[in-house]
Structure prediction request, 146 residues.
Amino acid sequence: MNFSIVLLSRKRTFMLANLLASIQQTTSQLSQLEVIIGMDIDDEESLAIAENLEERYPFCRTIFRPRQHNMHSYINLLARACSGDFVMVLNDDCEFLTEDWDDMARQEIQRIRQTWKDDIFYIATNDNSIDKVGSKLYASRCILTS
Prediction:
Protein backbone atom coordinates (compact mmCIF):
# COMPACT_ATOMS: atom_id res chain seq x y z
CA MET A 1 0.00 0.00 0.00
CA ASN A 2 1.42 3.32 -1.12
CA PHE A 3 0.53 6.71 0.31
CA SER A 4 0.55 10.06 -1.44
CA ILE A 5 0.52 13.41 0.30
CA VAL A 6 -0.39 16.48 -1.72
CA LEU A 7 -0.11 20.07 -0.57
CA LEU A 8 0.33 23.63 -1.70
CA SER A 9 3.06 25.85 -0.35
CA ARG A 10 3.72 29.52 -0.91
CA LYS A 11 6.44 31.58 0.77
CA ARG A 12 6.50 29.38 3.87
CA THR A 13 9.65 27.39 3.27
CA PHE A 14 10.49 27.10 6.96
CA MET A 15 7.12 25.50 7.70
CA LEU A 16 7.44 23.24 4.67
CA ALA A 17 10.89 22.12 5.83
CA ASN A 18 9.45 21.28 9.27
CA LEU A 19 6.67 19.23 7.68
CA LEU A 20 9.04 17.28 5.45
CA ALA A 21 11.47 16.62 8.31
CA SER A 22 8.59 15.35 10.46
CA ILE A 23 7.43 13.06 7.64
CA GLN A 24 10.93 11.68 7.22
CA GLN A 25 11.27 11.06 10.97
CA THR A 26 7.88 9.41 11.54
CA THR A 27 7.32 7.36 8.37
CA SER A 28 8.47 3.76 8.67
CA GLN A 29 8.36 2.93 4.93
CA LEU A 30 9.52 6.02 3.05
CA SER A 31 9.85 4.00 -0.16
CA GLN A 32 6.05 3.60 -0.06
CA LEU A 33 5.39 7.35 0.18
CA GLU A 34 5.35 10.26 -2.22
CA VAL A 35 4.82 13.91 -1.37
CA ILE A 36 3.76 16.21 -4.18
CA ILE A 37 4.10 19.91 -3.48
CA GLY A 38 2.43 22.55 -5.61
CA MET A 39 4.30 25.85 -5.76
CA ASP A 40 3.78 29.07 -7.70
CA ILE A 41 6.28 30.11 -10.38
CA ASP A 42 6.33 33.67 -8.97
CA ASP A 43 7.34 32.42 -5.50
CA GLU A 44 11.09 33.04 -5.60
CA GLU A 45 11.59 31.82 -2.04
CA SER A 46 10.15 28.41 -2.89
CA LEU A 47 11.89 28.26 -6.28
CA ALA A 48 15.22 28.76 -4.51
CA ILE A 49 14.80 25.71 -2.28
CA ALA A 50 12.86 23.31 -4.54
CA GLU A 51 15.83 21.43 -5.99
CA ASN A 52 17.44 21.05 -2.57
CA LEU A 53 14.15 19.74 -1.15
CA GLU A 54 13.97 16.97 -3.72
CA GLU A 55 17.60 16.00 -3.03
CA ARG A 56 17.21 16.05 0.75
CA TYR A 57 13.79 14.37 0.68
CA PRO A 58 13.77 11.91 -2.25
CA PHE A 59 10.12 11.09 -1.59
CA CYS A 60 9.25 14.68 -2.63
CA ARG A 61 8.34 16.13 -5.98
CA THR A 62 7.58 19.77 -6.66
CA ILE A 63 5.25 21.01 -9.37
CA PHE A 64 5.35 24.68 -10.33
CA ARG A 65 2.47 26.50 -11.99
CA PRO A 66 1.33 30.05 -12.40
CA ARG A 67 -0.44 31.19 -9.27
CA GLN A 68 -3.94 29.74 -9.10
CA HIS A 69 -6.86 31.54 -7.52
CA ASN A 70 -8.83 28.31 -7.16
CA MET A 71 -6.81 26.28 -4.67
CA HIS A 72 -9.14 23.28 -4.95
CA SER A 73 -8.51 23.05 -8.67
CA TYR A 74 -4.76 23.13 -7.99
CA ILE A 75 -5.06 20.44 -5.30
CA ASN A 76 -7.11 18.28 -7.67
CA LEU A 77 -4.37 18.60 -10.29
CA LEU A 78 -1.80 17.43 -7.74
CA ALA A 79 -4.04 14.55 -6.64
CA ARG A 80 -4.34 13.40 -10.26
CA ALA A 81 -0.53 13.43 -10.50
CA CYS A 82 -0.03 11.14 -7.52
CA SER A 83 0.39 7.38 -7.69
CA GLY A 84 -0.51 6.28 -4.17
CA ASP A 85 -3.34 3.96 -3.29
CA PHE A 86 -4.32 6.43 -0.55
CA VAL A 87 -4.08 10.21 -0.56
CA MET A 88 -3.80 12.85 2.16
CA VAL A 89 -4.23 16.56 1.48
CA LEU A 90 -2.25 18.72 3.90
CA ASN A 91 -1.21 22.29 4.49
CA ASP A 92 2.46 23.21 4.68
CA ASP A 93 2.06 24.19 8.34
CA CYS A 94 1.27 20.62 9.45
CA GLU A 95 3.69 18.31 11.24
CA PHE A 96 3.57 14.56 11.78
CA LEU A 97 3.94 13.60 15.43
CA THR A 98 3.12 9.88 15.49
CA GLU A 99 5.93 7.42 14.87
CA ASP A 100 5.13 4.78 12.25
CA TRP A 101 1.88 6.51 11.29
CA ASP A 102 1.97 4.75 7.94
CA ASP A 103 2.12 1.25 9.47
CA MET A 104 -0.76 2.21 11.75
CA ALA A 105 -2.75 3.40 8.72
CA ARG A 106 -2.00 0.16 6.87
CA GLN A 107 -3.32 -1.86 9.81
CA GLU A 108 -6.48 0.26 9.92
CA ILE A 109 -6.94 -0.14 6.17
CA GLN A 110 -6.69 -3.93 6.49
CA ARG A 111 -9.29 -3.82 9.28
CA ILE A 112 -11.65 -1.63 7.23
CA ARG A 113 -11.29 -3.84 4.17
CA GLN A 114 -12.81 -6.71 6.18
CA THR A 115 -16.10 -4.80 6.13
CA TRP A 116 -15.97 -2.45 3.13
CA LYS A 117 -15.07 -4.63 0.18
CA ASP A 118 -15.50 -1.84 -2.41
CA ASP A 119 -12.33 -0.13 -1.14
CA ILE A 120 -14.02 3.27 -1.00
CA PHE A 121 -13.59 4.91 2.39
CA TYR A 122 -11.68 7.54 4.29
CA ILE A 123 -9.76 7.36 7.54
CA ALA A 124 -10.00 10.23 9.98
CA THR A 125 -6.76 11.29 11.61
CA ASN A 126 -6.31 12.45 15.17
CA ASP A 127 -5.14 16.03 14.78
CA ASN A 128 -4.82 19.06 17.00
CA SER A 129 -5.83 21.69 14.46
CA ILE A 130 -6.47 25.08 16.01
CA ASP A 131 -9.94 25.20 14.46
CA LYS A 132 -10.93 22.15 16.51
CA VAL A 133 -10.37 23.65 19.96
CA GLY A 134 -13.18 22.43 22.18
CA SER A 135 -14.56 20.01 19.59
CA LYS A 136 -13.22 16.96 17.81
CA LEU A 137 -16.29 16.14 15.76
CA TYR A 138 -14.46 15.94 12.44
CA ALA A 139 -11.01 15.29 11.00
CA SER A 140 -9.18 18.26 9.54
CA ARG A 141 -6.92 15.83 7.70
CA CYS A 142 -7.96 12.41 6.47
CA ILE A 143 -6.67 9.58 4.32
CA LEU A 144 -8.75 9.00 1.18
CA THR A 145 -8.81 6.12 -1.24
CA SER A 146 -7.51 7.24 -4.63
Summary: DSSP finds four helices and six strands in the chain. Strands lie at 3-8, 33-40, 60-65, 86-91, 122-124, 142-145. The chain has a mean pLDDT of 87. The first helix runs from residue 13 to 26.
